[in-house]
Amino acid sequence: MTYFSLRKVSKTYESQTALHEFSLDLDQGQMIAVVGESGSGKSSLLRIAAGLMNQSSGEVWLGDMQVLSPSQKLVAGYDEIKLIHQDYQLSQSTTIEENIARPLLLFDPEYRKSRVEKLLRQFGLERYRERLPRNLSGGQQQKVAIAQALAVEPEVLLLDEPFSHLDTIQKHRLIFELKELLQESGTTVVFVTHDLDDALKLTDTVLILQKGKIVQKGNSRELCLHPKTRYVARLFSPINLIPDRFDSYIRPADVRLRTRGELLGHVIDQRFLVHYNSLLIRLKNGGEVWEVDDPARKYQIGDRVYLHFDEEQVLLLRS
Ligand code: ADP
Ligand code: MG
Asked: Which residues does the UniProt record annotate as the domain ABC transporter (predicted)?
């Protein structure tokens, strides 16, 4: 049964369309990620979903309650729907424990105490309860912000690129922990990010947003093997245009390098990466530059090399 839904939500700023008839249906407890480049409409989407910004048209529903926009409601926003963004939104002059307790000030003190204890425990923050936010790492501060948002047990959690300020190690740990916590609590989650890898670590289903419209929806396998557009394909890796063919592309990992063949190029750049060397190869005909993986680390700048690929790995992509 659909629980949280956006129905043909559009948003236009002056003349700029940020969202175009965006629709989304989530079951209770479902987690979904929306991935799109900067400016594709992600933040507008979440602010409208939270009732914090007026849409130009369309509706947002939580169960049988319509989510009203700021112009329809005296105090904008809902306790049931919490929005977290990349800045931690913590009070820097109060402790971690007080920060988490803040949304519960009007609640019964007994309940407040037990709720805060539970969150400190769940988020592994008990040791830091007396500290000020600035004395925690970025990852820990973002955890506190999320614990604070969950204090009032919201039905829906909206995450707007919440990991952008974190380093890779902090980020992976937090995503892993959050996934478990949110599944346990049965919270319905919409996570928006420009980073497809992050999205796939947190959720199974991903919506790809381009210029305010959904261009594709699927799990990682479907999106990786059958991207519909160049934009979707490029979220996974660079793609190389095959000369003299129409809308046909090949990925750097799907190109093999040989000493003979038909498609000739020479290496113009070489980088040592963790699992392979990444090469830039200028094709002899046409001068197109390809990005190619060299897992054997065999080729150097200046080398002549022939490029091979299998037909079944060719991606047919529209723009
Ligand atoms: P994202 O979060 O994916 O970067 P946004 O929702 O912030 O995307 O923005 C979508 C589009 O709307 C962008 O082109 C942006 O420039 C425009 N936009 C966002 N906020 C405003 C605003 N307050 N006034 C005018 N244009 C805006
Ligand atoms: Mg944004």
From this structure: 4-236
CB distance 154 to 82 below 8 Å: yes
**Rounded to two decimals, what is the model's pTM?**
0.90
Nearest residue (CA) to ligand 1, atom 14: 39
Each as own residue / partner, the long-range contacts of residues 277-286 (CB below 8 Å, 24 or more positions apart, any chain) are 278/252, 281/305, 281/307, 283/243, 283/307, 285/243, 286/243, 286/244
User: 220 and 103 in one domain?
Assistant: yes
Please state whether beta strands 206-210 and 31-35 pair in parallel, antiparallel, or not at all (unpaired). parallel
34 lines ligand 1 (CB under 6 A): no
Do residues 137 and 33 both lie within one domain? yes
Q: How far is the CA of 129 from the centre of ligand 1 (A)?
A: 37
Give the β-pairing of 188-193 and 156-160: parallel
- pLDDT tens-digit profile of 15-62? 899 999 999 999 999 999 999 999 999 999 999 999 999 999 999 999
